[in-house]
Design goal:
3-stranded antiparallel β-sheet; 42% helix; homodimer
Chain lengths: 379, 379
């Protein structure tokens, strides 16, 4: 095991970076994609299959887990790793984003946020200190500070106020995290919306406080992709080169490729599993909607060169059938296929960066997507 | 592979029998439980995991598959085995039972049954000849005759009429099945409701026609268990000892134990997967409802001695959580646990029959169920 939390860069290629994060529960190869396990399960995929698909780390949601089954309950059962049968690294978010997006009747002030539980209607308080305590109870390897996450567009005043509040909460989280066990780390979160000056102010202030890793938050909340990429372009260089950079809640395969090209190391997103449940597959040839009738008689697998069993062992006709008749197995197989594709993409990027050919890799991957799905054979 | 269909008895113990059925796709050890793959998938469980759980054979539903994706479609894709990624034996029912239980606006006469598809509203005809043709297109190793299956209670006149019609359809199915490939077999179905004389007449007439296996149909359709067991007691001895006997649509673990004690060799039932989707586990200690709050803090696995990974690798608290928050993984794990328990029970019965200690096995199994679930430890 790896008692000390650390990050080291293995190689860079332009702004893109390949590295390794060491945690109490093992190594995370970066750039890394973290499947989302909101309620202590990656929806529709067993933990062993998430691992077999190539994941080094998964994400858990503080908001959901503190409501059900409760952080103290999970701690009494030995922590989140044991609870969900995932003995590898786990990052937990702080709950802030879900409080904003999921809960009604919330009250936000300097002390933190109070919201009505969607489960039983009880009022629940989440302060920076409680957010850290909950994540400590869960036993996360990487803990996120509590922040205020706005939907874009928002006024500059709103963005500035939320960013400054998030900075004060960052300091409180850092104090609350002092004395945490070895191999664990607290990350700060850069806010500032789409405003360059505010983003830079946030990044510099966080670096002054000092964290072993930094997230870029408040993106993928409704803004166009070019705005997101511009903010990354402006923010990433303001973060220390020797610390991992995590772009929260992002994104599509194209988002990942473009963000890695701009120096991001970590990602999480529900898209692979959510789209899998809706019949959509991510592949080397772009997204494929298995619900489409053109697959009904197609005997070919989704991608015969994929290392993922589900991608090469079942015909498109079978996947189409499962999706059309709404069988659970369709959601299971497509979620697994999508997670495996995301991990294959990350592994490809890591290899390309290590070999100094990231630019060519990026072009080739884009060509595959743009070429689109292979034409069906006549049957 | 086994080009000729055959059945041989390995041992008997009282009326209970252990044997082996050889088919074109491999061996079925009896007594056998067949997981139900209604729409070309055992709900929530991958085919490889159904196999790993101990299944030798699965059941497919003619009614559902002829409507979606269609028997001709599956045949063009290489047959049901390839379609659902299950290269082992498959039995298909004739569609008769589902026509009676699922479809509206049906018309039944000597020629067969016509019904309105629940998928697109089209009128669909199912004759004895078409039922065999569909099952041949699917490529089933064991094909069932078309029969008329009544709900009990019914009048003696109704039962007699349906039984006689089913006999005439049995002859037509046998003619339609002539020339089928090697390693495949057509089974006749004994009808006659809860009437002893009609059951015996049906059994004798079917034996006169001559089939490589016989099913007892029209049970588990609303009658009490003692009526079902009496009918098996009366019917099984009228069937040839050297042919497998299949009790259709049955049942609970107790039903299986009691029916094997009465000379039945094969079973199918949706209970393990349906109950798994509803949070109910079958175990050595009876049925356990994981939704119950007493499991919420219980760190013990469901059954630490089970060979099934899902039964010994996850805490009851975790399974409870998954069921309560309605996560797919709960249905997946409990379906797998239940299928594995059913197969463990069948393997136990086969071993006990072979060793001449079935009576003691039956007592011990019943004691486990009656003892009930182990008390939770204090946490």
């Amino acid at each position: 095991m790896h008692p000390d939390f650390s990050f080291h860069l293995i190689g860079t290629d332009g702004a893109a970076r390949a590295g390794e994060i060491a945690t109490a529960h093992g190594i995370v190869r970066t750039p890394a994609f973290m499947p989302v396990g909101t309620q202590a399960t990656i929806k529709g995929v067993r933990a062993a299959d998430v691992r077999a698909g190539g994941a080094d780390i998964v994400l858990g949601n503080t908001y959901h887990l503190m409501l059900r089954p409760g952080a103290e309950r999970i701690a009494a059962l030995g922590g989140l790793h044991r609870f969900m049968n995932w003995p590898f690294p786990i990052l937990t978010d702080s709950g802030g984003f879900q409080v904003m997006s999921l809960s009604q009747l919330r009250k936000l002030d300097e002390s933190g946020v109070t919201f009505r539980s969607h489960v039983d209607g009880a009022m629940v308080a989440l302060s920076p200190e409680r957010a850290v305590e909950v994540q400590n109870l869960l036993g996360a390897d990487i803990v996120m500070q509590l922040d205020e996450c706005l939907k874009l567009p928002a006024t500059r005043e709103e963005i500035e106020r939320a960013m400054r509040l998030s900075l004060r909460w960052a300091e409180r989280c850092k104090r609350a995290f002092e004395g945490a066990g070895p191999g664990r780390a607290l990350f700060g979160i850069v806010q500032g919306g789409d405003d360059t000056a505010l983003r830079l102010e946030s990044a510099r202030a966080l670096v002054d406080i000092g964290f072993p890793g930094y997230a870029i938050g408040g993106l993928a909340v409704g803004e166009p992709q070019d705005v997101m990429l511009r903010v990354i372009d402006e923010t990433a260089p303001a973060l220390p080169a020797d610390r991992p950079r995590y772009l929260m809640g992002v994104g599509t395969p194209e988002d990942l490729l473009e963000a890695v090209a701009r120096g991001v190391d970590m990602f999480d997103c529900v898209l692979p599993t959510r789209n899998g449940r809706h019949g959509l597959a991510f592949t080397r040839f772009g997204a494929i909607n298995l619900r489409n009738a053109r697959h009904a008689a197609d005997p070919r697998p989704l991608d015969e060169t994929s290392p993922c069993d589900a991608a090469h062992s079942y015909s498109r006709a079978y996947l189409h059938h499962l999706v059309r008749v709404n069988e659970m197995l369709g959601a299971m197989l497509l979620s697994e296929i999508n997670l495996a594709y995301y991990q294959e993409l990350m592994a490809g990027m890591r290899g390309a960066i290590g070999a100094g050919r990231f630019a060519a890799f990026r072009v080739a991957i884009r060509e595959g997507w743009e070429r689109g799905d292979i034409a069906p054979v006549a049957v």
